[in-house]
Design a protein that fits this description.
This protein has 233 residues and is an alpha+beta fold. It has 5 helices and 11 strands; from the N terminus they run βββαββαβαβαβββαβ. It is 30% helix and 34% strand. Helix 2 runs parallel beside helix 3.
C-alpha cells in the first residue's frame, strides 16, 4: 500500500469523519457487476485492516475486496490497494474519492475513514477506464449519503456542582449552545464537562456564563484538550 508522509503532531484543529460507531453501506451495479461500498470509521491502520478482514470473511465469495483509507487530523496516513484489479484502477480512485470529498463548499477534510469496495464480477469486462469510474463513483455515492460529524480539538473544562443542581445546570448549558463532554459523577459532586474553543476569550466568556447561571456557586476549571465529535449544523 502506498504511504504518505507522517507528522508527529497535528497542525489541524478540526476535520470531518463518519459519525461514531457507524458503518455505512451502499451498492451500485455497473454492467451486471455489483460494487458494494462499506465505509467504516477507523482510528488507526489496525482498525482499517480489521474492517477489511471482516468484510473478506462476510463476502468470501466476491472476486475483489479493494480498500482505501485516510487517517489523522492532517490526513497524513493514506493507503490503497487494488486487490487483483489492474494497477491503479480501484484503490487509487477510491482514495481520491475520499480525499476530494467536499464536506463544506471548498473544504475537503474527510479523515479517519476506510472505504472497502466488494466487487462481484458480472461477466462483462469494464476496461481500465470503466473500472476507475465504477470504483470512484461507488465510494462517492456512499459518501453522499453517509452520516458525518465534525471532529474538533477542544478544551475540556469541568464545572463541579452538587448533585441536586447538576441536571438543571447541564440543561441550561445545553440550551445555551455549549457542547457537553461526558459528565462524571464523584462521591460529593457531579463534574459537568464543557468542550470549548481553546482560546482565552471563549474560556472567559464561558466562565462568566457559568457563574451567572449558577448565581456564583459554580466555577469553570480548564483542563486538557481532546478531540470531540460535534454535529454538522
Amino acid at each position: 500500500m502506498a504511504d504518505a508522509a507522517e507528522t508527529p503532531e497535528s497542525r489541524t484543529a478540526v476535520y470531518t469523519t463518519l459519525a461514531a460507531g457507524s458503518e455505512f453501506r451502499h451498492e451500485i451495479e455497473v454492467k451486471r457487476s455489483r460494487f458494494i461500498t462499506v465505509l467504516a470509521r477507523t482510528a488507526d491502520e489496525d482498525a482499517a485492516r480489521a474492517a477489511l478482514g471482516r468484510l473478506r470473511r462476510e463476502f468470501h465469495d466476491a472476486r475483489h475486496h479493494c480498500v482505501a483509507f485516510v487517517l489523522g487530523p492532517d490526513r497524513d496516513v493514506q493507503r490503497s490497494n487494488d486487490d487483483g484489479e489492474p494497477s491503479g484502477t480501484a484503490g487509487l480512485p477510491m482514495l481520491e474519492a475520499l480525499l476530494k470529498r467536499e464536506t463544506a463548499p471548498g473544504v475537503a477534510d474527510l479523515s479517519d475513514v476506510a472505504a472497502i469496495v466488494v466487487r462481484y464480477f458480472g461477466g462483462i469486462l469494464l476496461g481500465a477506464g470503466g473500472l476507475v469510474r465504477a470504483y470512484s463513483e461507488s465510494v462517492s455515492a456512499a459518501l453522499e449519503l453517509a452520516p458525518l460529524v465534525r471532529r474538533r480539538r477542544l478544551r475540556i473544562c469541568s464545572v463541579p456542582v452538587q448533585h441536586a443542581v447538576a441536571g438543571r445546570l447541564e440543561n441550561d448549558l445545553r440550551a445555551a449552545g455549549y457542547v457537553m463532554a461526558e459528565t462524571r459523577y464523584e462521591v460529593q459532586t457531579t463534574l459537568l464537562r464543557l468542550a470549548l474553543p481553546d482560546n482565552p476569550e471563549e474560556l472567559a466568556r464561558a466562565a462568566d456564563r457559568v457563574a451567572a447561571m449558577s448565581a456564583g456557586s459554580a466555577s469553570l476549571l480548564p483542563g486538557e484538550t481532546e478531540w470531540i465529535d460535534v454535529p454538522i449544523s
